[in-house]
Write a structure and sequence with these properties.
The complex is a heterodimer. By secondary structure, chain A is mainly α. Chain A has one domain. Helix content of chain A is 74%, strand content 0%. Chain A has helices at 2-9, 13-38, 47-60, 62-80, 84-87, 94-130, 143-170, 174-190, 204-210, 221-243. In chain A, helix 4 packs parallel to helix 7 (143-170), helix 4 runs antiparallel to helix 8 (174-190) and helix 6 (94-130) packs antiparallel against helix 7 (143-170). The two termini of chain A are 18 Å apart. By secondary structure, chain B is an alpha/beta fold. Chain B is 34% helix and 29% strand. Classes of the chains: A mainly alpha, B alpha/beta. The interface between A and B is medium-sized, with 25 and 32 residues.
């Protein structure tokens, strides 16, 4: 089922959004790092802090937007081709259809961060090539710090993604889904200051990277709320898909 | 003898916003038959098909090959191919990609893709051509290819000839008839045009305003209703011809020099024409019109 979902998204705009979205912030960070080095402001760099900059840069708009786009496009492929009615009459269980769609969305999210990290790694290696005194390869690679930062960001991202996954089962129009997503992201940025008091899913990435007290390590209360949202969204959308969804 | 039914429904009902869309539909589609499901636009054909296929809620019992749905749905659906409304095609992919997706979902052999493309005459299409560049007729053919993919024992087709050119319609008819005769596939086909189906179906069900108004073998549809066969006649001496018809105990009317003989059997034609010619009357026009299925169909949906 999963390979079928992969073959469906080839040649779609989603592939390009994922690719461009994942490269955008690492390249912007790399340009900024180069600029600082050329102006002799800060030549010394660390892998962990650079990756933190990438995640912070993504948390404003790019990451939440990609998390809105992935499920919206994956579901829109079926709506646009009126193929739900075909899929639901095939000798395949509803559970496997639902889970293969969810899996492709989660893997899309992981692909986004993985290719971001790869782009960041390549950009910083190029930087080290021009500025060997930056000390990038002198210290130990902070694998735990990078993993925890990424995990926090991924949990917050999946919360947005799964919320829109469920929403796409009700709202059968790509533009409306994206519109709701953009509205949520903008609202999240505007209400950023309130967000440690009130959980707002679309600003979860932003709060996770900028406001959580744990700084660059450990999972915080905010990510735990995101995990609860993920579980609730999963269970309710799965129930709806099995019992009520008609395509 | 008890017949086996490929599709059997009991009291299918579906309401939308308090309005009954389909009302107590009890279909009986015999195995190995071609069953035409007829009705005017908006009669409830597609809704019935969707409910049979489990795409709509509602009440009633649906059985495929004697097995009640939803129990054993996966196994039963593996024996069914369907095309409901418009073909479900991924337009950004090629015809082969579309079929390959179904092949993987149904766990079929990949060689089946070329076989069905050949059946629906789409082998000439370049493998890289995306479906969005296909004509309406080509999309329809591909939709039918998708339905044929599992080599189904039961084929459910909702208005399958929509968008096909006359040659395509004939091809499709021949394909469906050969599938029925050679492989024994049961075909359930819906349409709003009787003329389109009468050349291939063995059984017919007529739905109107959500109710099944007729269900039987096609040949029995001729005996339904008030419309009967008739003979129209123009001669060199209508007055004398009328006397002859009266002698032969025929029921006739005259309107603007045209005599219409009502409720007539085909075998009586010879006797009438021989009697008129024997009386030295020239026949200018003689036309026999059999009981018309179309008229009977209209009678059933208008009564």
């Amino acid at each position: 089922m999963f390979s079928i979902e992969v073959s469906k998204i080839k040649n779609t705009a989603l592939m390009w959004f994922l690719l461009i979205g994942s490269l955008l912030i690492p390249l912007a960070v790399a340009v900024s790092v180069f600029e600082e080095a050329l102006k002799n402001i800060n030549i010394h760099q660390e892998w962990g802090s650079g990756w933190y900059r990438v995640l912070r840069g993504s948390s404003f708009f790019t990451a939440p937007m990609i998390m809105v786009l992935i499920p919206s496009f994956v579901m829109d492929i079926e709506y646009r081709s009126s193929s739900w009615k075909y899929l639901l009459t095939l000798p395949v269980t509803r559970q496997s259809i639902f889970h293969s769609k969810l899996l492709i969305c989660i893997l899309g999210c992981l692909f986004f961060y993985l290719s971001s990290f790869l782009a960041y790694g390549i950009a910083m290696s190029v930087y080290w090539f021009y500025f060997p005194s930056s000390g990038l390869f002198d210290s130990e690679f902070p694998i735990l710090q990078i993993a925890i930062l990424s995990l926090r960001m991924i949990i917050s991202s999946i919360a947005i993604m799964i919320l829109h996954f469920g929403l796409s089962l009700f709202i059968k129009n790509l533009i409306y889904n994206i519109g709701i997503g953009v509205f949520g992201i903008v609202l999240g940025i505007l209400t950023f200051d309130w967000n440690m008091k009130f959980y707002f899913p679309h600003s979860s990435c932003l709060v996770s990277m900028f406001k959580s007290s744990a700084g660059t390590s450990a999972i915080t209360r905010y990510e735990i709320i995101s995990i609860v949202l993920i579980i609730i969204s999963y269970l309710s959308s799965f129930w709806f898909f099995r019992k009520k969804f008609r395509g | 003898m008890q017949r086996n039914f490929a599709i059997e429904t009991e009291n299918l009902c579906y309401s939308f916003k308090g309005q009954k869309i389909i009302d107590n539909i009890s279909l009986k589609v015999p195995e190995n038959s071609i069953y035409g499901f007829l009705g005017p636009n908006g009669a409830g054909k597609t809704t019935t098909i969707k409910q049979i296929m489990g795409l709509l809620p509602g009440s009633g019992i649906v059985k495929f090959f004697g097995e009640t749905i939803p129990y054993n749905k996966i196994e039963v659906h593996s024996r069914i191919g369907s095309l409901i409304e418009t073909p479900s095609l991924y337009e950004h992919l090629s015809a082969e990609d579309n079929l390959n997706i179904s092949v993987k979902l149904r766990r079929l052999n990949r060689s089946r893709v070329q076989e069905v493309l050949q059946l629906v005459k789409l082998t000439h299409v370049h493998s890289y051509k995306k479906v969005k560049h296909f004509s309406l007729g080509m999309k329809q053919r591909l939709g039918i290819a998708l339905a044929l993919l599992p080599n189904p024992k039961l084929l459910i087709l909702d208005e399958p000839v929509n968008g096909l050119d006359p040659e395509g319609i004939i091809d499709m008819r021949e394909l469906l008839i050969s599938l029925n005769r050679e492989v024994g596939t049961t075909i359930f086909i819906s349409s709003h045009l009787l003329a389109e189906l009468e050349k291939m179906v063995s059984h017919v069900g007529i739905i109107n305003q959500g109710k099944l108004v007729y269900q039987d073998e096609l040949k029995n549809l001729r005996h339904v209703g008030e419309v009967q066969s008739k003979l129209t006649l123009q001669t060199s001496n209508n007055a004398h011809a009328e006397l002859i018809l009266a002698e032969l105990n025929q029921n006739y009317t005259v309107d603007e020099n045209v005599i219409t003989v009502h409720t007539i059997e085909k075998k009586q034609l010879g006797a009438i024409s021989r009697a008129i010619i024997a009386a030295d009357i020239d026949i200018y026009h003689l036309m026999f019109k059999e009981k018309d299925l179309e008229e009977n169909f209209m009678y059933l949906i208008n009564r």
